[in-house]
Amino acid sequence: MSTVDLAGADFERTVTENELVLVDFWASWCGPCRQFAPVYDQASTQHEDVVFAKVDTEAEQQLAGAAQITSIPTLMAFKKGHLVYREAGALPPQGLEQLITALKELDVDAAIAAQKAAEDGDGNGAPA
């Protein structure tokens, strides 16, 4: 699968209706963005089970603002609709590959349950 361009209207539907979505926030004038683009595009051809989306921060300023993008490139990952990764900066090919592997292995349901248990205070889901 190649990368898909995301606009504000498509963003929420894309991240909630797909198992794993990577979103690259970029701009044409950004040197690191241009360096990361071929790495991202190559990974998209190797992982057809992952949605690789791109958001042009110049064309989609409202979406970039809503996502609180302050530096580009910024890569975000959503698994089962939950934001599970967010980092500014371009990744090298092996770094992106390691991230994708870790994201595929991540049990987001267990992570959410553990976080909820920690917030409840005693680990069994009941209020402390």
Automatic annotation (TrEMBL):
Pfam families: Thioredoxin. CDD domains: TRX_family. Residues 1-105 form the Thioredoxin domain. Keywords: Disulfide bond, Electron transport, Redox-active center, Transport. PROSITE patterns: THIOREDOXIN_1, THIOREDOXIN_2. InterPro entries: Thioredoxin (IPR005746), Thioredoxin-like_sf (IPR036249), Thioredoxin_CS (IPR017937), Thioredoxin_domain (IPR013766). NCBIfam families: thioredoxin (TIGR01068). Belongs to the thioredoxin family. This is Thioredoxin.
